[in-house]
Amino acid sequence: QVQLVESGGGLVQAGGSLRLSCSASGRTFYAMGWFRQAPGKEREFVGGISWNGHSTYYTDSVKDRFTISRENNKNTVYLQMNSLKPEDTAVYYCAAGSADYYSDYSRQEKYEFWGQGTQVTVSS
Fold first, then answer.
1. Tens of pLDDT along 79-106?
2. Distance between CA atoms of 112 and 14, rounded to whole angstroms?
3. Residue 100: CA count within 13 A, CB half-sphere
4. CA–CA separation, 82 and 15 (whole Å)
5. What are phi and psi of 103, to 5 degrees?
6. Given its phi and psi angles, is residue 68 left (phi above 0), alpha (psi -120 to 50 degrees) or beta?
7. pLDDT score of 26 more than 90
8. How many CB atoms are located within 10 Å of the residue 43 CB?
9. How far apart are CA 95 and CA 4, in angstroms?
């Protein structure tokens, strides 16, 4: 069993930055994903990272602005968000699962464990 806890969310002005953290307990050598859900919208894939950190994947809307990294010795995954836009406002979730292929990372059913989410609000 894996428990995930996100932190680092908050209110930031457009153009600003935030770094989200996802701390994991239990077995942690999973592929990790970040998802977000804006009010009135479905939860969507933001990005993912392989279990060893060698591969990262992003949805087009955050490429070149967001960076995912991980420190397995600290059981922590990070989402560095730069040049934030009001449309990035959402609850952000981290998730742990099994992803064998690039296409797996964006599939929510591939993730077994989910955090409770952290709110990110970007003001214009």
1. 999 999 999 999 999 999 998 888 899 9
2. 33
3. 0
4. 7
5. -70, -15
6. beta
7. no
8. 16
9. 7
